[in-house]
Amino acid sequence: MLQYFNKNNVTVLSVSFSLLIILSVVALLKIAVFERKPRNFSEKVSEARSIFQKLASGYPSLSVAVVENGKTIWREAQGFADIEERRQATPDTIYPIYSISKGFSGILAAVMQAQGKLDIEKSVRVYLPDLPNHYQDVTVKHLLGHTGGVRHYRDAGKNYPPDGEWMDIANRHCENPNDILPLFIDDELVSTPGDYKNYSTFGYVLLSAALEAAGDKKYTELMQTLIFEKAGANRMYLDQANHGTEERASLYRIGERDYQAIPPIDNSCRFGGGGFVATATDLALIGSVYAAGGLVDENQMRRVATPIIPRKENSSTGYGFSVSKMESAGQKINILTNGGSALGARAYLYIIENKRIAVALTGNVKGAEMDEQAEKIAKIFADLD
């Protein structure tokens, strides 16, 4: 409300008190918006550490790593890699990564496609001609997108102690994917190839066998030379029952009152479907080096980030990654994510492709979800929060 009145020949403007308050608040908001200074690195670490520590309170041990443009800029560990021995976790502690292995198999497929050794549009029988006839219409691309109709575990391992196929696989060691194919390869497909998405670790085991045949080298050797070595992921390897040793985290389950140790397991037979172990730093290095173009060119990166969509279902996935987009300052940004969890461990990888930043979290219990925390940490370092 505005009022004019004259006192001693002086015209005075009276502004209502409420209007003055509004104008003051608006001015302060403008200052807050336009004068906010970018956070320095130590401030970013402090914010990220707060998020990390809250998540770590629900794990025996937890590790985090942030890599930008192939350079590790922050990594940290908290808790016990082995509770009984009071052995502290370090950033070099190794954990199972379970289904994050699928994303790296997808990157390997992209690398081999760029080399001309693989055509993902071709039938998997081109590379494995001895497969049963019902795989004739299953392409490599179908396997990448979980649309090939290959079945998953008959028992997904939700019970404790796990029973059925999940635990059967954990009690053996495999040297190559062909060692485990007889477990499922003769079974009927659960759907017509390309029609529906049916999540399948066995589909990625079959993919691993096809990559091995196409590359004419052991699958693990292909991963080592074409992915791990180029990214500097030097503590990542196919699983074996050696957790509890100095470099490995012992694995636990959540009991009624405390964490309970589980017997050694061996996930090697899951291969590209969930067979690798690594540090958080290894995961983030691969993610960032990939985003920086250090593993494949932009053309192949676009393919990896292009959703594979089934014909009869509204769902999709990338080459082993979940793919989404966000917009910042008018720029569309690709986000690639993948998580892995099962008996005794959980891990998560978050990649901001355009920023060349990757964040990884690894822990030694199937604890709380990590996706929101990984996203928040990534956005802090990418100045997107």
Automatic annotation (TrEMBL):
- Give the highest taxon in the source lineage: Bacteria
Instruction: Give the GO molecular function terms.
Output: peptidase activity
Q: Where are the transmembrane segments?
A: 12-34
Is-annotated flag, keyword Metal-binding? no
* Sorted UniProt keywords: Membrane, Transmembrane, Transmembrane helix
- Record has Transmembrane helix as a keyword: yes
The Beta-lactamase-related domain covers which part of the protein? 51-376
Q: Which GO terms describe its biological process?
A: proteolysis; regulation of lipid metabolic process
Q: Which InterPro entries match?
A: Beta-lactam-related, Beta-lactam/transpept-like, Mito_Ser_Protease_LACTB
**UniProt protein name:** Beta-lactamase family protein
